[in-house]
Fold this protein.
Amino acid sequence: MRVKVWGARGSVPSPGPETVRYGGNTSCVEIILSDGTELALDAGTGIRSMGLALSENDSRINILLTHLHMDHIQGLMFFAPAFNPTSEIVIWGPEAPDASLQDRIARYISAPLSPVEVRELPCHVSFNEAPHSEWRIGSATIRAASVTHRGPTLGYRITEGDVSLCYIPDHEPALGADIERDDPEWISGFELARGATVLLHDGQYTSAEYPSRVGWGHSKLSDALAFARRVDTERLVVFHHDPLHSDDFLDDLQGSAIERWAELGGEPTQLEFAAERRELAVER
Amino acid sequence: MAEEQRPVELILARSLIATLSTPGFLVDEEGILVFFNDAASVLLGVRFEEVGRMGPERWGSEFGPIDKDGRPVALEELPLTIALRQGRPSTGRYTIHSVKGVEHEIEAAAVPILTMEGTRGAMVFFWLEEEA
């Protein structure tokens, strides 16, 4: 399984000279399975660049949406395969009591927010509420689980052979819970992330920022580290960087995070902050 | 051994109940008592951590409830059972007792936890009759 980060920023696109290295595009991670199957995790603005980089042979793409906040769907309207009549796009996402996944996405891809309606997209597009049990896409097994965030929100685990990647970009497991002491059954996302080879996880806030943002659905960095250690993931990639955090700020934060990670028993080389265009091989 | 991961709705309900000063219970979809808060522990004379999760038969014998004639209230008549089985809020007035036998007249209100996968549990809150 190969991974490429196309957008690691949270909340809102943040382009500019201060965010060149970690990037300003919002959530999008490309997964290429060993059989060549293409997945996109979320469709933030990063998916625009991903779409431009795809080859014409990639005619079928599965997009796994964690939730429908703008920073996770904004790129859909600018995803080149959506305008290619030979493309087949399968969109997965959380179910909700008020409307189907297609109708909820159509609130964005419709007037007055968009000049194009879903039904006008030239590609073959379909929408599926993520099943409650595991399902197959290509050579991988996919599992989705609801996690603590504002509104219906999923985390995903993609397993191929003996490796797995867990993606929980928007997650506040410490909301009303003690990550280090509570039984695992009471920690949001625990089963989904347990023992994952690679975990991409929300680490948006510093400890100083978090108290004024409790309940917004995101983690402070120290909680992301504690969660990753508790679920015994092999590698943590901190994701969903705050729009106010510049490259230099994130460098400093990453340095202190590696120290804390080591104090918690983690291998320092197994922690990094997600950066746009970063590629990873998920393997043993 | 770790229990199965709880649905996020139950995790958040437990968090809410833990935060409140109103005595509150959380039961799972099978009616197993999986949490009560510190305010409830004052009435019951024991903390949740001391007794752990328990099924309806055990919490019935430990805490009640009993009716005005001192008889145990049938499980199917309890607000939490109605909330779980019918997916709607329910209330009732009963007597419960602490582990030391101290009785409390209470009014109980049970609220089902409805999710996209159905009813996954219920929250039950208690008010002392003199406060209700």
About this structure: Chain B is about 30% helix and 30% strand.
